[in-house]
Amino acid sequence: MTWNEASGTVSRAFDDWKGNDRENRAFLRLSAQWSDKAYQQTWDEAQASFSARFDPYRHYGDEHVDMFDDAVDGLWPTDYAWITEASVVKNAVTAFEVYLEKALQEALGSSLTMDGKEHTVKLSAPPKFESPGWKTLVIAHKILGTDVETDEVTWARELRHLLTHQNGELRTDEALERFRDQDAECDQDEIYRARIGGKVPLGVPRVLKILDSLGTVIRVADAPAWAMCWSGSGRERWPEVMTKLYQQKCIVVEAV
After folding, report:
1. Cα Rg for the chain, rounded, in angstroms?
2. Strands 117-123, 111-114: pairing kind
3. What average pLDDT score do residues 129-138 get?
4. Is the pLDDT confidence value at 189 over 80?
5. DSSP type of residue 171
6. In a 3-state reduction of DSSP, which class is residue 3?
7. What's the sign of the alpha-carbon dihedral 169, 22, 211, 143?
8. Residue 231: predicted pLDDT
9. Among candidates 57, 135, 100, which has minimal Cα distance to 219?
10. What distance in Å separates the CA atoms of residue 175 and residue 179, rounded to the nearest whole number?
């Protein structure tokens, strides 16, 4: 028996991640559908309300725009879409990191017996933290056989940092160059292109591409992680892998 997503021969951690990935994609799709309808309804109501009391001697004719702006508290459709897309990116990157941790813990197990005594096995974590740091995850999965720190993953994690700690604001030329979407800007007017002081461009196609790239790495990583726990050949590697993880200070082994 080998790892096979189609037949469900995957780790529990993979199943959890796949559910989260499905939710992210549904949230992205449904939010667009529902917000489009709600915004159109609000726009129509503003137009109807203004038309009902329009006075050519008192009004300019476009006051419904301000009425719409008031109704949505200044959150226009493009702003709503950006917030939705940013939340999906942040959640997806976090779910990626959670998968890496849970897959390792599943592969290693939570206990082992040495010299007739039971010991707990935990992934090493910084003081006062329950989860391991990024480098621990990278090294541990490398020992299992997968490079999870690809260029795409590094870029996505940096984008998550930008979205989380700078609310997506592009503050430097370096950030502008790294995060602008050149392909998408080809058909855009200058005013809509990425700029210093503006927010990083997202868009549904770009967000889906990020989700796909993270999913590709997870699918590669899950095969050896699953094997460590569920296949005979993988279990044969368990002592060797445990030894390397301990030597690299990726795990903590303590007597119960």
Report:
1. 25
2. antiparallel
3. 95
4. no
5. -
6. coil
7. positive
8. 82
9. 100
10. 6
pLDDT at residue 115, as a whole number: 63
The predicted-structure confidence for 202-244, as pLDDT tens digits, reads as follows 999 999 999 999 999 999 999 999 998 888 777 788 888 988 9
Is residue 124 pLDDT above 90, yes or no?
yes
Tell me what the mean pLDDT of segment 64-80 comes to: 90
Lowest mean pLDDT across 50-54, 94-98, 174-178? 50-54
Q: Provide the pLDDT for residue 103.
A: 96
Residues 5 and 108: their CA atoms lie apart, in Å, by 21
If you ran DSSP here, which 8-state letter would residue 199 be given? B
Residue 251, classed as helix, strand or coil, is strand
The C-alpha atoms of residue 249 and residue 245 are separated, in whole angstroms, by 6
The b/e string for 16-33 (b: 16+ C-beta within 10 A; e otherwise) is bbbebbeebeeebeebbe
Task: Please tell me the distance from the alpha carbon of residue 246 to that of residue 252, in angstroms, as a whole number.
Answer: 7
Q: Tokens for 168, please give them.
A: 């997506």
SS3 state of residue 25: helix
Dig out the tokens for 71 from the structure: 């109704």
Question: What is the average pLDDT across 78-102?
Answer: 97
Percent composition of the chain: helix, strand, coil (DSSP 3-state, to 5) = 65, 10, 30
Q: In this structure, are residues 31 and 207 in contact, taking their beta carbons and an 8 Å threshold?
A: no
Distance CA 95, CA 201 (A): 22
> Does residue 61 surpass a pLDDT of 60?
no
Across the range 125-154, mean pLDDT stands at 96
* CB-based burial label for 178 (10 Å; 0-12, 13-18, 19+): middle
Q: Do 43 and 68 contact (CB within 8 A), yes or no?
A: yes
Q: What is the DSSP letter of 255?
A: E
Statement: residue 62 has pLDDT above 70 = no
Cβ(39)–Cβ(77) under 8 Å? yes
